[in-house]
């Protein structure tokens, strides 16, 4: 529960999440559950030029 409590303090703050495939996504943390599933708003890919195929995913997530 230590990690869960820590992530709860970051709700409504901007965070950067690094996925297992080394992609980094930045956004506003909106929620986290006890399994550490997270929901981000206003996302952006940190290295857009390296992952251009994800730019369209950003557009879908913000609409």
Percent helix, as a range, is 25-40%
Low-confidence stretches: none
Shape: elongated
Largest sheet: 3 strands, antiparallel
How many discrete structural domains? 1
Subunit arrangement of the protein: single chain
DSSP strand tally: 3
Q: How does the helix and strand content classify structurally? A: alpha+beta
N-end to C-end Cα span: 33 Å
The overall pLDDT average reads 87
Radius of gyration: 12 Å
Helix and strand element order? HEEEH
CATH architecture: Roll
Strand order of the largest sheet: 1-2-3
Keywords:
63 residues, alpha+beta, SH3 type barrels, 2 helices, elongated
Short description:
25% of the residues lie in helices and 35% in strands. The chain is α+β, with helices and mostly antiparallel strands and 63 residues long.
Question: Could you characterize the architecture of this molecule?
Answer:
Keywords: mRNA processing, mRNA splicing, Nucleus, Ribonucleoprotein, RNA-binding, Spliceosome. One of its GO terms (cellular component) is precatalytic spliceosome. Its main location: nucleus. Residues 2-63 form the Sm domain. The protein is of the alpha+beta class and 63 residues long. It has one domain: SH3 type barrels. It is 25% helix and 35% strand. It has helices at residues 2-9, 55-62, and strands at residues 14-18, 24-32, 38-45. It has a three-stranded antiparallel β-sheet with strand order 1-2-3. Strand 1 and strand 2 form a beta hairpin. The radius of gyration is 12 Å and the shape is elongated. The model has no long low-confidence stretch (mean pLDDT 87).
């Amino acid at each position: 529960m230590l990690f869960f409590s820590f992530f709860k303090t970051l709700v409504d703050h901007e965070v950067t999440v690094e996925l297992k495939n080394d992609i980094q996504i930045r956004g506003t943390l909106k929620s986290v559950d006890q399994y550490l599933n997270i929901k981000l708003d206003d996302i952006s890919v940190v290295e857009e030029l390296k992952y251009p195929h994800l730019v369209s995913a950003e557009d879908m997530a913000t609409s």
